[in-house]
Design a protein that fits this description.
With 77 residues, the chain is of the alpha+beta class. The protein has 3 helices and 3 strands, in the order αββααβ. It has one domain: GMP Synthetase, Chain A, domain 3, CATH 3.30.300. The chain is globular, with a radius of gyration of 12 Å.
Length: 77
């Protein structure tokens, strides 16, 4: 569910939606998601002063709070 959510948000923001990849690594109470996009789309995902990626992380934390799990989103270059 979270992978689809991250992928759909990223694809809506980038110019090359076919390049979006999301990898999930699950731990005990923490899930780590690695988002990778085309080099020219990194700025669109990060946003000015990191505001776009911060907003995405806020949405993910709100969704994950229902299941009492921690979510970490990493942007992979």
């Amino acid at each position: 569910m979270m992978v689809k959510l991250i992928r759909s948000m990223a694809e809506a923001l980038v110019g090359n939606p076919g390049e979006v990849q999301v990898l999930e690594t699950r731990g005990g109470q923490t899930s780590v998601y690695e988002l990778s996009v085309a080099k020219e789309d990194l700025g669109r995902i990060i946003g000015k002063r990191g505001q776009t990626v911060k907003s995405i992380r806020t949405i993910l934390n709100a969704v994950s709070s229902k299941s009492n799990k921690k979510v970490v989103l990493e942007i992979v270059e």
